[in-house]
């Protein structure tokens, strides 16, 4: 899946993945896609909940070798 911006928050613990994702979302246009790579196990639930409550859309999610990858479309 194509992303307009990639954010790598590997190694960061809660709440930093959300804080940095929010900042990155402010830097892209509505309809664009942010790809987030995180290693914090809590990021899966946190980012899914934040995306929904912020009016964005979680397009896809997968895990590869302990890295959680999210594709979030800005609402």
From TrEMBL:
Signal peptide: none annotated. InterPro entries: TusA-like, TusA-like_sf. It comes from the Bacteria. Residues 7-31 form the UPF0033 domain. It comes from Aneurinibacillus aneurinilyticus ATCC 12856. PROSITE patterns: UPF0033. Belongs to the sulfur carrier protein TusA family. This is UPF0033 domain-containing protein.
């Amino acid at each position: 899946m194509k992303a307009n911006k990639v954010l790598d928050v590997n190694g960061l613990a809660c709440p930093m993945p959300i804080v940095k994702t929010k900042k990155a979302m402010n830097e892209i246009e509505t309809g664009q896609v942010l790809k987030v790579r995180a290693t914090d196990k809590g990021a899966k639930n946190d980012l899914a909940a934040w995306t929904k409550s912020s009016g964005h859309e979680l397009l896809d999610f997968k895990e590869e070798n302990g890295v959680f990858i999210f594709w979030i479309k800005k609402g």
